[in-house]
Amino acid sequence: MSDKKKMFYWLLTALFVVGVFFLVKNGVNPASMTSFNEGSFLQTKVQYLKIAGVTIKADLALSSDSQIKGLSGRKDLKSDEGMLFVFDRPGKYQFWMKGMNFPIDIIWIGEDSRVVYIKENASPESYPESFVSDKEARYVLEVISSFSQKNNLKVGDKIEFLPS
Predict the structure, then answer these.
(1) 4 & 69 share domain
(2) How far is CA 74 from its chain centroid?
(3) Residue 98, domain extent
(4) Are 139 and 16 in contact (CB under 8 A)?
């Protein structure tokens, strides 16, 4: 191999390593960029999803701070809006109604994008009680109260993540 080709390959390798380093330093997991869902979560603060035949515009709660705050302090939520909590790995995540101004349905979603548990009509008055699924979830969706009943949502239903 000629010296020019060796130099080219070394330069190309160095650029690749620097690029990966830059992504990791800025909190981007390069492995997740191969998946539409994971990549889109890294690019936006909103995710559209289809659940029980209804398209929901969900604000994303990706960081610990945004997950702790959730919908607390908001005055209301429209019937086609929600908040999607995205966790690094499946687990049994607890939710409470601290600081909430209106009741909601809380929907736990497994890694396979299927509903694993639904807490309907969680009211602000229930605080400090917390709610948790007995099955592991990767995502949790909060929507307006009675959404699940009105749309006949059931455990096992599939959630579809839509392009943003």
Answers:
(1) no
(2) 19
(3) 35-162
(4) no
Phi-psi region of 11 (alpha: psi -120 to 50; beta: other; left: phi over 0): alpha
For 65-113, what is each residue's pLDDT tens digit? 999 999 999 999 999 999 999 999 999 999 999 999 999 999 999 999 9
Cα(83)–Cα(77) distance, rounded to whole angstroms?
Answer: 10
- Looking at the fold, whether 56 and 8 belong to one and the same domain comes out as no
Report the relative pairing of strands 81-91 and 54-61 from DSSP bridges: parallel
Same domain, 116 and 52: yes
11 and 77 inside one domain:
no
The answer to whether residues 25 and 125 touch, using CB atoms and an 8 Å cutoff, is: no
Residues sharing a CB contact under 8 Å with residue 57, sequence separation 6 or more, in sequence order: 46, 48, 80, 81, 82
Q: Closest Cα to residue 37, out of 148, 139, 154?
A: 139
In single-letter form, the type of residue at position 96 comes to W
pTM of the model: 0.74
3 state DSSP class of 3? helix
Quick one: 39 and 99 in the same domain? yes
